[in-house]
Amino acid sequence: MIKKENLDKTNAWPFVEAKKILRERKSYIEKKGKITLQTGYGPSGLPHIGTFGEVARTSMIVNALKYLTNLPAEIITFSDDMDGLRKVPENVPQKKKLEENLHKPLTQVPDPFNKFDSFGEHNNQMLKNFLDNFNFNYIFKSSTELYKSGFFNSSLQVILKNYDGIMNIILPTLGKERQKTYSPFLPLCPETGHVLEIPVKEIDKSKSKIIFDNNGKSLEKSILDGNCKLQWKVDWAMRWYALDVDFEMYGKDLIESAILSTKIIKLIGKTNPSGFAYELFLDEKGEKISKSKGNGITIDQWLTYASPESLSLYMYQNPKRAKKLYKEIVPKAVDEYLEFIEKAKSQSELQILMNPVWHVHNSEIPKENMIMTFSMLLNLVETSNADNKELLWKFVKKYKTKISEKDYPIFDNLVGYAIKYFNDVIKLHKKYKKPDHNEKLALEALIKTLDKCNDQMTPEDIQTLIYSTGKENGYAENLRDWFKLIYEVVFGDENGPRMGFFISFFGVKETKDLIINKIK
Description:
The protein is an alpha/beta fold and 520 residues long.
């Protein structure tokens, strides 16, 4: 049982947001007897890592709510699959098939993978599969199903009733030409099946019908039962209204949309949910990650090289700061994950509530001791030439004789991840330095220093001798350059492990042989 005073004091962002929900939505939540949080997904492309981030972060808030209230909390994952396909994604097969079906609702576009009845259904299933793999608790809702089943009908009638007020909110934000054709209702064309963006000629609120101007021809449509869908900003407000949403987070690129949707839901008689605008995810070039481009690291790639928990940790940290998502960030994320687990062992209750792994593991932090960092393990993959888990484990056990795979499940997984990451990512970028005459002399002096060392020495004592060798061989003014030389010659990189620890683990003779081999 966590002390109330610590729950009051913690400023970990999931608790901050949970407290804000309970404060801002108090009367609505008490009336409903539950808390509803929503995440939105546009299935116009394959689900990407940003979608995972939104559900993971929302789940962390749900975990915080459990400690603040006895009311149940649910996450609705909403798929806007009735939206029209606007462009063909770059990362799918059979692009021509999609081109032929542009502007149709995503649930009416054929699946280019030939696995499901539609592209929308395919992407929905992919979304559910990877959310299930992470054991997220969520309720999936499809826009198409809710429109066509009539679930949204009464809310759509409220929107139609407030048509003029909504137009007064939206029109000032549009250019003059767009103002002439804008309608919050988008009818489905009976001939082409396209989602049409055409102007309104006449409204019959009593019959819930609209007559549109379809290139000079009158098109009469009921707004009910999926015959029309709403424009995005109005649709978002209607969804908050119909589903009684208490919280939703969104990327900062949707802040303006959230402001307009907030005005609309207030106009139609309810209060907007508590919101949280997070910074965007970027690829290694600093460009926004896009479903249609498929840029940045994918969920599958991250999970090939590291644990789901390390990805959750990356999503937890600094949600209001832009994040670059590419393969090279994985080792740092993994090492930070291991470091936070280690720190938790000596932290107070309040410090633990601030520890990211408490939120990553839904308050159940693993107790496993750390054998070594992931970065160190990657160096061992190279120096041992291990190409499978069994071989690398044998190498580890040579120096850590009393450990067993079954007692170290996190590390056991790291062993497999390290081999894959080294071979797929690091190996391709290795550039080993060929030392010049003076650099070679300095490294030969290091070999002589290692002749004086043995495997019983502490890592600190070995590290001190390496420092001294550098100072005596031209690096007294800049020891960073001394270690950079060692790393570039031995590991093919500007950065590397703490050498004292590496040598004590790898072995003095083995390290000496490794340096001699690299010099040659």
